[in-house]
Prior knowledge:
This protein is of the alpha+beta class. It is built from 22 helices and eleven strands. 62% of the residues lie in helices and 8% in strands. A hairpin with a 3-residue loop joins strand 2 and strand 3.
Amino acid sequence: MAHLGRLVTIVVTVLRFGLDEVALSAFPQRWVRGLVRMVTLGRRLDAPRGVRLRMGLERLGPIFVKFGQVLSTRRDLVPPDVANELARLQDRVPPFPAAQSRALVERAFGRRIDEVFASFEAEPVASASIAQVHFAVLKDGREVAVKVLRPGMLEVIDQDMNLLHLLARWVERLSVDGRRLKPREVVAEFDGYLHDELDLVREAANAAQLRRNMEGLKLVLVPEMVWELCTPGVMVMQRMHGVPISQLERIRAAGVDIRKLARDGVTIFFTQVFRDGFFHADMHPGNIQVSLDPRTFGRYIALDFGIIGTLTENDKQYLAHNLLAFIRRDYKRVAELHVESGWVPANTRIDALESAIRTVAEPQLDRPLKDISLGQILLRLFQISRRFNVEIQPQLVLLQKTLLNVEGLGRDLDPDLDIWTSAQPFLERWMNEQIGWRGLLERLKNEAPRYAQLLPELPRLLHQVLQQQARPGDSQALQALLTEQRRTHRLLQALLWLAVGFVTGLLVTRAFSAWPG
């Protein structure tokens, strides 16, 4: 009953803007067309469907706006008129009043706005579902962008997320397949990301980390934060001068290599995912610009860091192995990896899963990107996952959403771009660094301080454990255990000296190879 009011609001909005007609009209079946005529009987729906869908999502709030933003990048799944209208949700959501924005800034800093800024533009340059952005100039002359959180966002999001949590619980109770999809964990993951986005200090920290990670890549620019002017509700950052990536004609006219831009986007994505395990997870066109400054010409400019995805080392390893096997069409290895990772039951027949994956992948991989529908592939894989009881991994849901954004962006830039072929050299190089000699040396270097502390303590700790496990009075068992302890100690010493010798030999070899002459 606590959610009844919100449900009524959603139903009224759906009926008012004819969103039921928009959803049903996507199905070509004759009986569906008859149903459309029934549900629209007595209602005048004069506005175009794209306009009605955008206005309905705006009225329903930020969670629904996020859904519309994802749809706007999937022109292979959404008709062009709908996609063009939904693109307005990326940075042209109706702003809140300028006076209210100024009041929020002054309250956050505890000072009048003219005491903080030399100038502050009342008209927002961008307005999205969570916040809006104003340009300003600091007293020292630095040009900045001021991001101000929309008032009342927490209450709206909490209400919708409580409703989603309730629906997820019902899905798990009523459906065996629903339990496999882990709806409660997926909703909890989404809930965490949305609440993180409401804390602008967290967003500033995300931006600072991403800026450090991307510094050596020379392909993307991330604004610098003005930390003394960052609060949970207001964030001040370096102003970036770029052209929105949606303005392709302007970018092309400036002389930017569009095909290279598309390839760079793939490189940036896979670098963030597999090298750093820390990736920008809201990569719709409203958050991406291109620099035309001669010093950084043709580089991406990343904006809005409220939603950041993270992956563990295990996640990265399994994803890289799966993608490489997929690209190489080694479907047996893909099936084996699903079993090894626990994504499917251990008693799954490898040959049956391999055959099912081949059926989905083989017809698609020879086509250029413009002819591939990742949406169709995901739909078919979802059907297969039901048959083999594949467990959905909640930590990867955000990655899947971001991959859809990247593919949609790549499709707009270069319809002939093959994202998988572009990714293969990067993935192979990354895998070699992870499992080859370079990876071993890097891990030894990272773990050396821990080993240096652990090894001297290990014999004493092992002795204590063995004493506790030996029964009192059983001197023969105790002696056997102590003998095993000494043998283990000698083995550890030998392994340690072997590692030291290996590293020393490698350094000597490098020194001689670098010797002049």
